[in-house]
Amino acid sequence: MQWLRLTSERRPCLLSAVLSPCTISLPGLTLTAGRQTILHLMNRAEAQTMAFDPPKPSSRAWIDVGAAQHLPPGTMQRYESEGQRILIANVDGTPFAVDDTCTHEDASLYMGALQGDKVKCPLHGSRFCLRDGRALDEPAEIDLACYPARFQNGRVEIVLARRLD
Predict the structure, then answer these.
(1) How high is the pLDDT of residue 160?
(2) Closest of 145, 84, 78, 141 to residue 114, by C-alpha
């Protein structure tokens, strides 16, 4: 797989998925979500998304997941491999990797908002610290799993083994 940019041909399908609660796993997301939420999701769909390059083995179990130039400061991308979804964010030049799924209602945090070193869930507003995975706001009470991440030779690398902090 390569880095992908959503094309205009794909946008109607994404909008359909956003507006139809039976086609996505975001419980409670309906047309009543409000214009701002729908526009936010549409803007996220138009933003560049990352279908990272296939993992390449490297030293110390680091996995090369894509070019660093596609993860500028203040952005986040999602990496998916064998059913595991990881959110990778660049906070002021430092990469962080956490589980992409909110621990409260299974929403994708990638569809949420990056606020400094925190990510806000798009469904109920729970926030998580990207530095340590802590759940900061209810309704989420369970922390996210964190993964080592780094920029190395112009690439983004992560380790999928959970940290033992």
Answers:
(1) 87
(2) 78
